[in-house]
Design a protein that fits this description.
The chain is mostly helical. It has helices at 3-12, 16-37, 41-58, 67-93, 99-102, 107-129, 133-144, 149-156, 160-181. 80% of the residues lie in helices and 0% in strands.
Length: 182
Protein backbone atom coordinates (compact mmCIF):
# COMPACT_ATOMS: atom_id res chain seq x y z
CA UNK A 1 0.00 0.00 0.00
CA UNK A 2 1.50 3.32 -1.08
CA UNK A 3 1.63 6.35 1.28
CA UNK A 4 -1.45 8.01 -0.26
CA UNK A 5 -3.52 4.83 0.03
CA UNK A 6 -2.42 4.53 3.65
CA UNK A 7 -3.50 8.13 4.25
CA UNK A 8 -6.88 7.44 2.61
CA UNK A 9 -7.30 4.29 4.73
CA UNK A 10 -6.55 6.23 7.93
CA UNK A 11 -9.01 8.97 6.92
CA UNK A 12 -11.67 6.34 6.15
CA UNK A 13 -11.11 4.86 9.61
CA UNK A 14 -11.83 8.25 11.16
CA UNK A 15 -8.44 9.94 11.49
CA UNK A 16 -9.08 13.68 11.53
CA UNK A 17 -5.42 14.48 10.78
CA UNK A 18 -5.40 12.13 7.77
CA UNK A 19 -8.59 13.66 6.37
CA UNK A 20 -7.23 17.18 6.87
CA UNK A 21 -4.10 16.15 4.95
CA UNK A 22 -6.28 14.90 2.07
CA UNK A 23 -8.17 18.18 2.06
CA UNK A 24 -4.87 20.11 1.97
CA UNK A 25 -3.57 18.01 -0.92
CA UNK A 26 -6.69 18.23 -3.05
CA UNK A 27 -8.37 21.54 -2.19
CA UNK A 28 -6.75 23.49 -5.06
CA UNK A 29 -7.58 20.71 -7.55
CA UNK A 30 -11.21 20.55 -6.38
CA UNK A 31 -11.53 24.34 -6.37
CA UNK A 32 -10.18 24.57 -9.94
CA UNK A 33 -12.69 22.00 -11.20
CA UNK A 34 -15.58 23.78 -9.54
CA UNK A 35 -14.42 27.19 -10.74
CA UNK A 36 -14.60 25.90 -14.32
CA UNK A 37 -18.36 25.51 -13.83
CA UNK A 38 -19.06 28.28 -11.34
CA UNK A 39 -17.42 31.58 -12.12
CA UNK A 40 -17.94 32.92 -8.60
CA UNK A 41 -15.08 32.07 -6.22
CA UNK A 42 -17.26 32.56 -3.12
CA UNK A 43 -19.86 30.09 -4.39
CA UNK A 44 -17.09 27.76 -5.56
CA UNK A 45 -15.75 27.69 -1.99
CA UNK A 46 -19.20 26.71 -0.71
CA UNK A 47 -19.45 23.92 -3.26
CA UNK A 48 -15.90 22.77 -2.39
CA UNK A 49 -17.02 22.38 1.22
CA UNK A 50 -19.92 20.24 0.02
CA UNK A 51 -17.46 18.14 -1.99
CA UNK A 52 -15.26 17.45 1.01
CA UNK A 53 -18.29 16.67 3.13
CA UNK A 54 -19.36 14.14 0.49
CA UNK A 55 -15.83 12.73 0.36
CA UNK A 56 -15.85 12.34 4.15
CA UNK A 57 -19.21 10.54 4.04
CA UNK A 58 -18.26 8.32 1.07
CA UNK A 59 -14.66 7.56 2.05
CA UNK A 60 -15.44 4.24 3.78
CA UNK A 61 -16.88 2.98 0.46
CA UNK A 62 -13.91 4.19 -1.64
CA UNK A 63 -12.36 1.30 -3.63
CA UNK A 64 -8.77 2.58 -4.03
CA UNK A 65 -9.07 3.13 -7.78
CA UNK A 66 -7.57 6.54 -8.52
CA UNK A 67 -8.39 8.94 -5.71
CA UNK A 68 -7.75 12.06 -7.80
CA UNK A 69 -10.22 10.88 -10.44
CA UNK A 70 -12.76 9.89 -7.79
CA UNK A 71 -12.63 13.24 -5.97
CA UNK A 72 -12.66 15.02 -9.35
CA UNK A 73 -15.91 13.26 -10.28
CA UNK A 74 -17.48 14.24 -6.98
CA UNK A 75 -16.42 17.86 -7.54
CA UNK A 76 -17.80 17.84 -11.09
CA UNK A 77 -21.13 16.39 -10.00
CA UNK A 78 -21.50 18.84 -7.11
CA UNK A 79 -20.71 21.78 -9.42
CA UNK A 80 -23.23 20.58 -12.00
CA UNK A 81 -25.85 20.09 -9.28
CA UNK A 82 -25.22 23.63 -8.06
CA UNK A 83 -25.54 25.02 -11.60
CA UNK A 84 -28.82 23.15 -12.11
CA UNK A 85 -30.21 24.41 -8.81
CA UNK A 86 -29.14 28.00 -9.56
CA UNK A 87 -30.58 27.70 -13.07
CA UNK A 88 -33.96 26.64 -11.73
CA UNK A 89 -34.00 29.50 -9.24
CA UNK A 90 -32.94 32.04 -11.86
CA UNK A 91 -35.48 30.65 -14.36
CA UNK A 92 -38.33 31.04 -11.87
CA UNK A 93 -37.33 34.63 -11.13
CA UNK A 94 -36.89 35.63 -14.78
CA UNK A 95 -39.89 37.13 -16.62
CA UNK A 96 -41.06 35.22 -19.69
CA UNK A 97 -39.68 36.67 -22.92
CA UNK A 98 -42.30 36.10 -25.61
CA UNK A 99 -39.75 36.82 -28.35
CA UNK A 100 -37.85 33.68 -27.45
CA UNK A 101 -40.73 31.62 -28.82
CA UNK A 102 -40.66 33.35 -32.19
CA UNK A 103 -36.92 33.51 -32.68
CA UNK A 104 -34.93 30.45 -33.67
CA UNK A 105 -31.42 30.20 -32.32
CA UNK A 106 -28.54 28.27 -33.75
CA UNK A 107 -28.38 25.78 -30.91
CA UNK A 108 -26.08 23.31 -32.66
CA UNK A 109 -23.53 26.06 -33.36
CA UNK A 110 -23.55 27.15 -29.74
CA UNK A 111 -23.25 23.56 -28.56
CA UNK A 112 -20.29 22.99 -30.86
CA UNK A 113 -18.63 26.18 -29.61
CA UNK A 114 -19.19 25.07 -26.01
CA UNK A 115 -17.65 21.65 -26.69
CA UNK A 116 -14.58 23.23 -28.27
CA UNK A 117 -14.30 25.65 -25.36
CA UNK A 118 -14.50 22.77 -22.85
CA UNK A 119 -11.82 20.83 -24.74
CA UNK A 120 -9.58 23.91 -24.76
CA UNK A 121 -10.16 24.43 -21.02
CA UNK A 122 -9.24 20.82 -20.28
CA UNK A 123 -6.15 21.05 -22.48
CA UNK A 124 -5.07 24.25 -20.74
CA UNK A 125 -5.58 22.61 -17.34
CA UNK A 126 -3.36 19.70 -18.37
CA UNK A 127 -0.71 22.14 -19.61
CA UNK A 128 -0.91 24.10 -16.34
CA UNK A 129 -0.50 20.88 -14.36
CA UNK A 130 2.71 20.28 -16.32
CA UNK A 131 4.28 23.61 -15.34
CA UNK A 132 7.17 23.63 -12.86
CA UNK A 133 5.77 24.01 -9.31
CA UNK A 134 6.95 27.60 -8.81
CA UNK A 135 4.98 28.68 -11.89
CA UNK A 136 2.02 26.33 -11.39
CA UNK A 137 1.32 27.65 -7.89
CA UNK A 138 1.32 31.27 -9.02
CA UNK A 139 -0.86 30.53 -12.06
CA UNK A 140 -3.36 28.68 -9.85
CA UNK A 141 -3.40 31.46 -7.25
CA UNK A 142 -3.77 34.27 -9.79
CA UNK A 143 -6.14 32.77 -12.37
CA UNK A 144 -8.14 30.18 -10.47
CA UNK A 145 -8.25 31.68 -7.00
CA UNK A 146 -8.29 35.32 -8.11
CA UNK A 147 -5.52 36.46 -5.79
CA UNK A 148 -3.66 39.72 -6.39
CA UNK A 149 0.10 39.99 -7.01
CA UNK A 150 0.43 41.36 -3.47
CA UNK A 151 -1.45 38.44 -1.87
CA UNK A 152 0.59 35.88 -3.79
CA UNK A 153 3.87 37.68 -2.97
CA UNK A 154 3.02 37.69 0.74
CA UNK A 155 2.03 34.02 0.78
CA UNK A 156 5.04 32.89 -1.22
CA UNK A 157 7.49 35.22 0.53
CA UNK A 158 8.65 36.81 -2.74
CA UNK A 159 8.51 40.27 -4.31
CA UNK A 160 5.51 41.38 -6.35
CA UNK A 161 7.80 41.84 -9.37
CA UNK A 162 8.83 38.19 -9.00
CA UNK A 163 5.16 37.18 -9.12
CA UNK A 164 4.71 39.30 -12.23
CA UNK A 165 7.75 37.84 -13.98
CA UNK A 166 6.82 34.25 -13.08
CA UNK A 167 3.33 34.78 -14.47
CA UNK A 168 4.86 36.19 -17.64
CA UNK A 169 7.19 33.18 -17.96
CA UNK A 170 4.35 30.76 -17.21
CA UNK A 171 2.18 32.33 -19.93
CA UNK A 172 5.11 32.12 -22.34
CA UNK A 173 5.65 28.42 -21.54
CA UNK A 174 1.93 27.70 -21.89
CA UNK A 175 1.78 29.54 -25.21
CA UNK A 176 4.72 27.51 -26.57
CA UNK A 177 3.26 24.21 -25.37
CA UNK A 178 -0.13 25.14 -26.81
CA UNK A 179 1.44 25.80 -30.22
CA UNK A 180 3.31 22.47 -30.06
CA UNK A 181 -0.01 20.67 -29.66
CA UNK A 182 -1.64 22.33 -32.69
Amino acid sequence: MNPEELLIKKAAEGSKAAFEELVERYKAYVFAIILNFIRDSHQAENVAQEVFLQVYISLPRYRYEGFRTWIGRIATHKAIDWKRKEGRVAEREKPVDMQQFSQRENVSGRLEDELVLNEDRERLKVLCDGLPPRYRTIVRDFYYEGKSYRQIAEEEGIAEKTVESRLYRARKILKEKWKEGD
